[in-house]
């Protein structure tokens, strides 16, 4: 393998070791920043041919979410560190690449639909969970860990008064539709309605990454996350070691 094939991965690691990266665009910041990747807060649907097929699984995903506890949040882990008010919780399928066996078994059709998504980060330190916001909840502005992936939200339960700002643009979820955005841009979410909101959240690799870079990041990403964010995640997933 030519060293140049991993040049920007190495550059990103070195910058992270020096204390992080400012990002390539306004409001973009990431602990593990890979230079040279297209920086867009919101990604257009046309870039992802799999979206329509995945969205056709919404009914199955929603049924399994409700069977696993639904908006009541049974078995979910609270996310207090970023919650300005109200309650935000996560019913994990995968966290930092670790499968939560009980929840995965409860949601076989959801997992099957996810496995058909091209370039899903999956067990490579990725995230996949049902994100639940109670009524009158607001998540504070924050940035994600890396720009090496894009974040996807499938709208499941969406009452009026909900929204997501990424960078300088805000949008509203739609049931049965997927958002694709770069969570290394500052983002915040809110549910100003009178009932809960739920989406299925998952990550895919950034389309600009090569297969060689993805292979390298598959190994490195879990280590980066554990080293740079382990204290926060340890608090958030305490008590959920076996799902």
Keywords:
243 residues, alpha+beta, Jelly Rolls, 7-stranded antiparallel beta sheet, 5-stranded antiparallel beta sheet, 12 strands, 26% strand, globular
Shape: globular
Amino-to-carboxy terminus distance: 39 Å
CATH architecture grouping: Sandwich
Q: Sheet bearing the most strands, described?
A: 7 strands, antiparallel
Protein name: Aspartyl/asparaginyl beta-hydroxylase domain-containing protein
InterPro entries: Asp/Arg/Pro-Hydrxlase, Asp/Asn_beta-hydroxylase, IPNS-like_sf
Keywords: Dioxygenase, Oxidoreductase
GO molecular function, one term: dioxygenase activity
Give the helix/strand layout:
Blueprint: H1 7-17, H2 51-55, H3 58-67, E1 77-78, E2 83-85, E3 88-95, E4 98-99, H4 101-106, H5 108-115, E5 128-133, E6 137-142, E7 149-157, E8 162-166, E9 169-171, E10 178-181, E11 187-191, E12 197-205, H6 211-236
Antiparallel strand pairs: 1-3, 2-6, 3-4, 3-5, 5-12, 6-11, 7-10, 7-12, 8-9, 8-11
Q: Could you characterize the architecture of this molecule?
A:
There is one protein chain. It is globular and about 50 Å long. Strands 1, 3, 4, 5, 7, 10 and 12 form a seven-stranded antiparallel β-sheet that branches. A five-stranded antiparallel β-sheet has the order 2-6-11-8-9, with no helix packed on it. It has 243 residues and is an alpha+beta fold. Residues 236-243 have low confidence and may be disordered. The protein has six helices and twelve strands. The protein has helices spanning 7-17, 51-55, 58-67, 101-106, 108-115, 211-236; strands at residues 77-78, 83-85, 88-95, 98-99, 128-133, 137-142, 149-157, 162-166, 169-171, 178-181, 187-191, 197-205. 38% of the residues are buried. It has a single domain (44-236), classed as Jelly Rolls (Sandwich).
């Amino acid at each position: 393998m030519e060293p140049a094939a991993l040049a920007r991965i190495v550059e990103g690691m070195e910058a992270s070791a020096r204390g992080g990266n400012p990002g390539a665009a306004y409001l973009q910041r990431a602990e593990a920043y890979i230079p040279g990747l297209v920086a867009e807060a919101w990604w257009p649907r046309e870039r992802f041919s799999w979206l329509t097929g995945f969205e056709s699984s919404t009914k199955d995903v929603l049924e399994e979410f409700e069977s696993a506890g639904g908006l009541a949040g049974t078995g979910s882990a609270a996310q207090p560190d970023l919650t300005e008010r109200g309650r935000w919780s996560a019913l994990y399928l995968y966290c930092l690449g670790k499968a939560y066996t009980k929840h995965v078994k409860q949601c076989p059709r959801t997992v099957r639909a996810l496995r058909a998504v091209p370039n899903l980060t999956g067990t490579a330190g990725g995230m996949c969970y049902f994100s639940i916001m109670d009524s009158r909840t607001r998540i504070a502005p924050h940035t994600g860990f890396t720009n090496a992936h894009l974040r996807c939200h499938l709208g499941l339960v969406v009452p009026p008064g909900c929204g997501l700002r990424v960078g300088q643009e805000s949008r509203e979820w739609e049931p049965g539709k997927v958002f694709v955005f770069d969570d290394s841009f500052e983002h915040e979410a809110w549910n100003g309605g009178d009932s809960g909101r739920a989406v299925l959240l998952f990550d895919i690799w950034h389309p600009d990454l090569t297969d060689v870079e993805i292979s390298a990041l598959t190994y490195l990403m879990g280590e980066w996350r554990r080293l740079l964010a382990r204290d926060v995640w340890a608090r958030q997933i305490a008590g959920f070691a076996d799902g």
